[in-house]
Design goal:
CNF1/YfiH-like putative cysteine hydrolases, six-stranded mixed sheet, four-stranded antiparallel sheet, about 250 residues
Length: about 250
């Protein structure tokens, strides 16, 4: 039995969204559970079976388009005839029955729709992509393409490494502050380094858009090993997925 998380947001009923946990699946060893990443040295045949289990469990309306994620700020528009895999770290569509999906194991998954459910978007926001503006670039591009006002948007921040676990150096903190001085509030001194709050950093980047709603998961991938894979915690590990589609 798979154990999936649903966003705690007010998206329309025809918008479906989930984050996987590591529970369920047939991977073993360091990847024990529902590993969905083909790039982490797990047995590819096993990973493909895990992906099939997810699709079957959710009765997904179309085949999944798995991204080749490179911590970029690339956004891809998913069409009916899109080729996969695609090199991008964010994906969106206004087509029905086209799931958008990203993988994480500590990075922040971000889901976006609007009050009408006219589109869906999934973003993989690691600290690099977040610092480089993947959220702002994605929202601006989508709003521009659909002529949608950003005040209509609904955003969910999924499970990621929490603010009590994500230790970074001066280099990471300085890069964020150089982009936005308010980012200082997202870093707390600890052990001669800094604890970074990924969700707060994302909220700061969302602030200029005045979106209608920001909801967030309270789970920490690092501190809940029974539920989540964590690259920071384990190094060699699997990947979860966060996905969204229009019915």
């Amino acid at each position: 039995m798979l154990n999936l998380l649903k966003p705690n947001w007010s998206a329309p009923a025809h918008v479906h969204a989930f984050s996987t946990t590591r529970l369920g699946g047939i991977s073993s060893g360091a990847y024990q559970g529902l590993n969905l990443g083909l790039h982490v040295a797990d047995n590819p045949a096993v990973v493909l079976k895990n992906r099939a289990l997810l699709a079957q469990y959710l009765s997904l309306p179309a085949s999944l388009c798995w991204l080749n994620q490179t911590h970029s700020t690339l956004l891809y528009k998913l069409e009916n005839n899109s080729d996969c895999p695609l090199e991008a770290d964010a994906v969106w569509t206004s087509f029905k029955h086209q799931p958008c999906i990203v993988m994480t194991a500590d990075c922040l998954p971000v889901l976006v729709t609007d009050k009408q459910g006219s589109f869906v978007c999934a973003i993989h926001a690691g600290w690099r992509g977040l610092c480089d503006g993947i959220i702002e670039k994605s929202l601006a591009a989508i709003c521009g393409a659909l002529k949608t006002d950003s005040t209509e948007l609904l955003v969910w921040l999924g499970p990621c490494i929490g603010k009590s676990a994500f230790l970074v150096g001066d280099d990471v903190r300085n890069q964020f502050i150089a982009e936005n001085k308010q980012a200082q509030s997202a870093f707390t001194p600890a052990q001669g380094r800094w604890l970074a709050d990924l969700q707060l950093l994302a909220r700061l980047r969302l602030a200029p858009f005045n979106v209608a709603q920001i909801s967030a998961s309270e789970h920490c991938t690092f501190s809940e090993p029974e539920l989540f894979y964590s690259y920071r915690r384990d190094g060699q590990t699997g990947r979860m997925a966060t996905l969204i589609w229009l019915d």
